[in-house]
What we know:
Largest sheet: 7 strands, antiparallel
Helix content: 10-25%
Number of helices: 11
Structural class: alpha+beta
CATH architecture of the largest domain: Beta Barrel
Oligomer: single chain
Radius of gyration: 26 Å
Amino acid sequence: MMVLQGWGRVAVWAAIVMVGAGLEAADVRDSVVKIYATRRPPSFSRPWTRSNATEVSGSGAIIEGKRILTNAHVVLYASRIMVQAHGSPSKVRAKVVAIAPGMDLALLEVSNPSFFKNRPPLPLATERPKVKETVNAYGYPIGGEQISVTEGIVSRIEFVHYRYGTFGLRIQVDAALNSGNSGGPALVDGKIVGVVFSRIGNADNIGYLIPSEEVVTFLEDVADGHYDGKPRLLDSLQTVENPALRQKLQLTESMGGMMVWHPFSDKGDYPLHDWDVITKIGDYDIDRQGRVTIGDDLRVSFQYLVQKNAKEDRVAVTVWRDGKKVPVEVPVLRERPMLIPYLKGRYPRHFILGPLVFTEASQELVAAFREKGAVALNARRNPLIRRQYDRPAFPGEELVVLVPRTFTHPITEGYDNPMFAVVTRVNGTPIRNMAHFVETLRDADEEFVTFDFAGSYERQVYRRDELLEATEEILEEEGIRYQCSPDLEKIWKGKD
């Protein structure tokens, strides 16, 4: 999806910053666009298809390189994207060329390069705005068709969780922001200091911006044509505020840091140990609450500097170990390994066999039923609940889920509805993942096929020939084009 070849990091920074005077207000309006998207997210009860289309709109800013910057949530799962410029009666087709769902940022390109004629790119600010500084938010919120400009001040700047385990700086402003503002730029002196991405609906004028420095990080990341993500430490850490804990660790009064209570890896060569205290990251001291001071008055989590200081997926830190300071280099990861991962814009795989529909476990699937069905699944000891945030127990482990949308068919007579049951065995063979599940079914040549599920779910047994015969019937009757996802179809048909 990423096609930004040829942009080196230095070139990217030089091109997008455009040091100098910003644009005048009239020019800014020419550089802000309205985005129309037709979104079709996954259907977790019918994973062979997609949910009904919904029309959404958002805002975007033209930036250097004839690209449009917006929010990921505006265009995620979009089957069609149209862009309309200020003062123009027409819309042009656009496509996503880079997306970071975790940081809620995306880049668009339009089909007609002449779209950018007389529409200058907006420069990105090189510095964070100050608290109490005035910002102007441009966009196309609900309540009208013309471009809207609202004014507010910067209330605070924090390092917070965005989405999908991704962390970054966030600017809070008191400008009036509404649905449709998402993806629009917020400017100071004609330069983008942030991108509008969320608000608190039940509060008065509390909105949030993704700072320009996070946008620059995103653009630098995708300059090679691929989004890698933001590095971070994944060890289990805690503050060193408690007096008894500090005495045990032999910390002096002036020392702060974050204590490791569960290293990310248990391998012998892993540089962090249980009871280690990370006291410094690079040249920055970490205080007792795990924060560092950057700039004049900004205190943020030390993880902010992990993202800034990591080189070749390692970061230099100083630890306090057995009463001594020890410099170490710690590996960082750009994504937490999860047994139940996030789809992040991908559609779930599916496999249909007779009246049974199987799909892969995902955090989005769990979120779709959790509010109403979590109690029932927990009572059944379903691993979708018990293992929701676990790491894979072995390389390639996935959970194969039987969706509740079981087709009506005589061969299911007498069986309970195994709501979101997780397959553990097929004919006694432990199932490792979706691919292995399909492979096991393909190679099963016994008369019967037996499914075992995790937790309190009854066993189900079917005649193999009846399952295969019912598959053809159901696909035809339901108008389903594909029995399974393309990668699983290759396995099912015995292709490499």
